[in-house]
Fold this sequence. Notes:
Helix 2 packs antiparallel against helix 3 (44-56), helix 8 runs antiparallel to helix 10 and helix 10 (172-198) packs parallel to helix 21 (408-425). The protein has 23 helices and no strands. The protein has one domain (2-238, 328-467). It starts with a helix and ends in a 5-residue tail after the last helix. The chain has helices spanning 2-19, 25-39, 44-56, 60-79, 81-93, 97-112, 118-134, 139-155, 158-168, 172-198, 204-222, 225-237, 239-267, 282-288, 294-308, 314-328, 330-347, 349-362, 367-376, 397-403, 408-425, 430-438, 443-467. It is globular, with a radius of gyration of 22 Å. By secondary structure, the protein is mainly alpha-helical. It is 78% helix and 0% strand.
Amino acid sequence: MEIGIACFAVFLVMAALMYSRKISALLALPIMAVAIGLVGHIPADRILTDVLAKGSTKLANAYTTTIFGAILADLINRLGIAKALVRWVAEFAGDNPFLLSLLMTLVTALLFSSLGGLGAVIMVGTVILPVMLSLGIMPLTAGGLFLFGISLGGMFNLANWQLYIDVLHLQQAQITAYIVPFAAVVAAAILAFLLVELRAWSNLKWVGIGIAAIAVACIAHGGSFGAVADATNAAQTSAVPAVQTSIIGSGVILLLLIIWAVFRQRRRDRSLPGIAFLAPAVPLVLVLLWHWDIIPAFLAGTTYAVLSTWQRDSVNLLTRSIIEGTSTVAPAVVLMLGIGMLLAAVMDPAVSHAIAPLLAKMVPTHATGYVLVFSVLAPLALYRGPLSLWGMGSGIVKLIQQSTALGGSAIMSMLMSVGQLQGICDPTNTHNVWIATYLGTDTQALLKRTLPYAWCAVVGGLLLAVTLGYVR
């Protein structure tokens, strides 16, 4: 018991240091891993080998996937696909503030289903934010919508899925079964945020249209939230035939793209064709509809982006994207190295046996307690806290799965739900800092403006998990 309390004390001390910005999460996680190893009486040789050496490679699949995703993201940036898409939507929306804001948020979500990193936030933000501000939308409203769009798109960013797959050993179909209806919950929160912020009764019709669209999407996905859970097993069963069928179709598309590239080469065409706008969605379609693995899907998306926009210098452009894209996610990779070390430390028998009894008493495993407790404790996802998978929570997630009755899907649902507070509101996010600076405000103002709506999305996500039968 004393060892378990000492380990939680280490968590609290490191949380205080990160909260006060005395230390970054990049340094805090490996330091925490070593400290927990010491207070947990893990032998020194095992701290060196199991915690530091083996722990650093524990999430190799996750950060490899992140690198491939970053290459595609950088390529989309360099090709100008993101900026062109934003400008096209802005022209389509006209001068209606509600419609323009909604479409800009959806475009942001689409882009960040593939994009990631502060560089992408700056690139997209310098286009989207001025467009919204030009129609008289208040800076905090524009910033909040941009953050909601980033978070909504991040839910579908395949690189983020790999962490759940590696840590909780979930299948892609299990993640999809929750994310699709949860996206509808977040979309409803966005509509509520827009309606309140713009304060115009005339916008109620657009809210009604949005709610109808969400309902149609949910019906198309499975008829009901309960049907989503039933669809998971069917999706897993049909995955192999779907992949085989899609490979044939992909081969045909690849041949057509090669012919298209030769045609552009001969014409010396340097324009951005309309088919290039599909590049950010290609990996997502291959994973969601055809059940491809994530890394091949990213490679397919990169190939599509290169061939659909082929120019004489496309090979050099791809090479630069490989180099620059990899460098942009270096902080995320280092963070995942620390997460792996922390996981290894907490999962060591010397530590896990001491912490497990405490978690068994603290973590609710029944539906009512699950919703109430995690709704109240959701702010612990802020400041890289104990409910943040990208912070201190990374060390106890696996242990919760092993020491309580909560299954992997229930834990994933909780983390994704409370993760909305971390992704949208957390002042320690670099993209929150940049957005606040760009808009001439501060991160605390963004936190206060977005927190009520993100918190409502948290409650909705937890209720959704109960509805899907993850917690009873």
